[in-house]
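User: When convenient, might I ask for sequence and structure tokens for a protein?

AI:
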Amino acid sequence: MAATHNPAKVVEGKTYRPEIDPAGFTTEISNDYMPLVPGTVFIFEGDGERVETAVTDKTKTVMGIDTVVVRDRAFEGDTLIEDTLDWFAQDAAGNVWYFGEDTAECENGKIASRHGAWEAGVDGAQPGVVMLAQPQVGAFYRQEFLRGEAEDVARVLDVGATVKSGSSTYRDAIVTEDFTALEPKVVEHKTYAPGVGLIQAKTVKGGKGVERLSDVRTGVSAAAMPAGKLCQS
């Protein structure tokens, strides 16, 4: 498979170190299966939690590349339990890359742990692809890489699927199998719809549970976006 189709492919026996050219990236993330437009908020619900994913108008420079800052907050009821800043950019071929995260587990409005935080280019961490420009069944790729901390990989299981999630039916969806060497007994299936992005994440091995997209808000003003320090809702 051509590198442009699967630029973060896993090759057994070879060190993972993708070629990154800052000139080849943009903050305009228009991939049909992961559009990240500033001012958009995605709401996911399931397993007693609510996750609010807000695409901000802020950027962060990582490895010389301007990335889009997406704030991901998880709640139990009205209590903020996890708060994360994710960094994304799109390459010239249309692949969406993940450049790291500043993440925190929250207790009583304070940071209890930063386990899982990483930044591409620091301490050997490497960026990965979270959505291919041209997904093909069987494509196997890294989504992130920092040995012992961030080792998520994915495999494309289906393209052109028809999927019912909640009260909605989506066509031409992509289904991926997501797993990590850090938790080898846990496997998730994630479903992405064209023009929307992630619509469902379901644990299929090593547990039970499903999170579904329940709402998408567009045109949210910068003033209404989450701001301030991590774990302060």
